[in-house]
Amino acid sequence: MRRMLWLALIGVALAANEVRIITIESADPNATxxxxxxxxxxxxxxxxxxxxxxxxxDLVITSSKATLSAxxxxxxxxxxxxxxxxxxxxxxxKRDRMTAKGPKLVYQESTGLGTLSGPAQxxxxxxxxxxxxxxxxxGKMTFDVDTDVSTSEGNVLLKNGxxxxxxxxVYYEEKRGLAIFNDKEQVxxxxxxxxxxxxxxxxxxxxRSLTNDKRLIATGGVTLVDGNIxxxxxxxxxxxKTGIAIVAGKPARSENPKENFRxxxxxxxxxxxxxxxxxxxxxxxxPVNDFQKAAK
Length: 296
Prior knowledge:
Order of helices and strands: HEEEEEEEEEEEEEEEEEEE
Low-confidence stretches: 1-15
Distance between the termini: 26 Å
Structural class: mainly beta
Largest sheet: 19 strands, antiparallel
Helix content: under 10%
Shape: elongated
């Protein structure tokens, strides 16, 4: 039984590596490939921007130069599934509606991860003309070819419509539009507003946002700043379509010093369109299941 399980696990690992094998080619008739034919590394070069193309599953990488190398002592053929591809020179990464750019990308067949060095930029077009694009800038971005997930690190800024979030890292599921912000200090999410209302600001340890649905949850101690009103608690859920935030705490607190208003209760409903905080009287459970990561 153990032997059968062991063989099955080996089969899964080999299948994963086979899917992760990268193909490098060029439509440029003047492009070159050099290097030891048997052991590599192979160097691909083109004088045209984007003249070299690497493809692995639905991820396409273009550049003007690429190097494909095998572990020492292995032939390029025998090392399929273990090789490293390095792309340099105006990198463009495409997958479905997503496009990313940066100066260098390193792809590992063994992990199925491609890391784009920064300054890196990513833009995902909306599904339809009713949606907003998602734009990300970061120190680096890592793309997983086994899933539709990218992870951005280092002074990350994500913009979506009138909202933008800043944090150390952002995990992002492209198809579902789930963005998870984490920061060792504090995630800062800003909803831009014009006029006397000023910007709406949410601060928390972690924020999970469904960018397509315009909904989010925040945890780890939260602060919601809405003009003169500040509401704090342990967690919140916010729907940008309605402008309603539900803040829970032990207790949750809302204050407006300008109007000498204070509210301290278990759960507060904060309407950011009407600038009003009141007691929330219905049973409340943070909808964490709606914001879970997709299973890999």
